[in-house]
Hints:
By secondary structure, the chain is an alpha+beta fold. Among the domains are: 6-53; 76-115. It has helices at 37-53, 104-115, and strands spanning 6-12, 18-25, 28-36, 76-80, 86-92, 96-102. The strands form 2 sheets. The protein has a 3-stranded antiparallel beta sheet. A 3-stranded antiparallel beta sheet has the order 4-5-6. It starts with 5 loop residues before the first strand and ends in an 11-residue tail after the last helix. A hairpin with a 5-residue loop joins strand 4 and strand 5. The longest helix is centred in the middle third of the chain and has 17 residues, at 37-53. The chain contains 2 helices and 6 strands; from the N terminus they run E-E-E-H-E-E-E-H. The protein is elongated. The mean pLDDT is 90.
Amino acid sequence: MALRQMKLAASLGGNKLEAALDLFEDDKRVGRMVVDASGLQEIVDKLAKVRAKMPDRVPFNIDLGSRFSSTKNPEWRLQRHQDGTFALFLRHPGFGWLAFRLSSEEASRIGDGLTSQPGDKPGEPD
């Protein structure tokens, strides 16, 4: 028996208030789910949690020559905690608010990296 080809397609509704998620099996639609923005956010969050548990991890290094889509001047918030750590929140238009907990040392390295001159190696010891 041949394996069936499964595909997921996503589209935005005409009113832009809902998204349709269609599941296809061998080019035949076998399921459809229509969700609003909060329902779609819930799906994205669930998928991210599953992805984080997979043994094929997200790479720890980035090829800086690669092309990435990026958000220009995202909204951000910073919260200092009593234990000396920081919570850095960055707003992505598709993924929502992403939170990162940083030690004071890591926060300092980020600050140094953002203020370093071209040619400097930010975040690395001299």
